[in-house]
Input
Amino acid sequence: MMTIHALPTWLREIKDIRVNAQSPEWLVTEKERAFNALIKSGIPSRKHEKYKYTDFSFTTDKHYQLSPQKEFGNLSDFVASSCVTRHFIVMVNGVFKKKLSALPEALTVMSLKDAMIKHPEWIKSQLLKEATSYFSELNQAFFLDGLFFEIPDDYQSDEPLHILSIITKQNDCLIVPRNVFMIGENAKVNILEEYIAKEGNTYFNNVVTHWHLKKSAKVKCYKKQNEHIEAAHYATNLLELGEDSHFELVNITKGGIFSRDDVIARLQGIKANCLLSGFYHLERASQYVDHHVEVIHEAKYSQSEMLYKGILDSESRAVFNGRLNVVKDADRINAYQANHHLLLSSEAEAYSKPELEIYAEDVKCKHGATTGQLDEDALFYLQSRGIEERDAKSILIQGFAEEILKRIHSSIREHFAEVL
Amino acid sequence: MYFLRTALNAVRKQKKLQPLDAADFLSLVKIKLKEVGLDETFLHRAVNEGFSGGEKKRNEVLQMLMLEPSFIILDETDSGLDIDALQMVGRSVNSLRNMNRSFLVVTHYQRLLDYIEPDVVHVMANGKILKSGDKTLAKELEEKGYGWIESEINS
Output
């Protein structure tokens, strides 16, 4: 049987520049393999269960090329006005810029290229993990660099560290950063991960990030996706949680025409705990947001929670796919997943799909999903107290979002207020 | 609390007054809270934590005191209230009474009227006003019941 794959022409054309002179032998081979896999399977169609509601037409509408990394001018004023914490790490078009950053002394922060020299075997083991989607494979084939940081054992800091990822004018560019974060034993760190565009443009940011948490490490990651409204954003987060470690994600999506987040969390150590949450407020007609969250309980007594909430207006679309996988013998698990949507327009669409796959015993898993409109009675009540309709709606929206937004570190919560 | 401040400032805007800032609002609401007998922790309680019947009534009276509407309908405010709360409602209503503000108090009992002295009393049955009078009419009703009015109309 012959099948016709959608294969954008740009994909073949950028073949030649996917490695550089310093790339180790294994990486060249791996990139070769990844590239061939991309050509062979083509852009996934809606027949794939994972992409059932996803419209990838942006991949064929545009003619992407790899970011040329040319001069981007002086960004120090832009950085100064965008950073909201004392310490920050700046990435420009997917490349770590040490000179623009203000790093805490105790941390080891470097480009992925340098990290491959410092920790060759460990980085290799991370980078050779199997692809989780077509787009993580795309990153595999084309990434050149990215960010690496290592939080030392027992490092404890409450003050959020801002990772600011800036895209300069990069029309029709494919940006493929690859990040690897290693959190040491008993370390505690709060991170603000922000994506922002300096100028308007139509790039495709395809990020893959590895998080490796050692024993008793605690990470809170607040993500603000504030890409340009015409850009596409695809982020793959691969988490490995060691014994008694905690990872909390609060993912706030604002920008982009297409935005997808794949989170694949492996709870490998006993008592590992993973809280994943997100909020999005879509107001633009063709805006699309997609969260695919997969938690794999591989160890006993591990816990997880997914809580995603979204408000949809105009003709926007949102997809949530939560998947819980409890492997054999990973007993005594506690897991919860929920997804709630508020539709403000009759043209907006929300798709919500929970999946549970359980092979262990003595497991507690709950899931729930709701889709609704603003409560007319509540709206009337507020208006009866003299509040204008527009303000009354915004009070109700704020109430809906509060459950997620209050999880954000109080020192940077204001930074997220604009999404309401 | 956020709701109350937004409401108050919406009303003030219509009255062409400057909006209250957070500090002024807070000192005002604290005074009013004391008047209705609610604790300050009440300000930070989320709606989904729930309120008791008495707290809901006190909350409504608090809104009345804060928003100072020009026309106020109290529909069976006295049902389910204990004596203290009833006195509080009476006190609050009386504090707002003046020449420019009207109240419509709906009740089944005369009891509330010990605290709020009505100007006019109407007796209503099946959607019609059967009889009107002054405060003595309410006292009369308390003694004789409603039956005599209906028989008076029918005769």
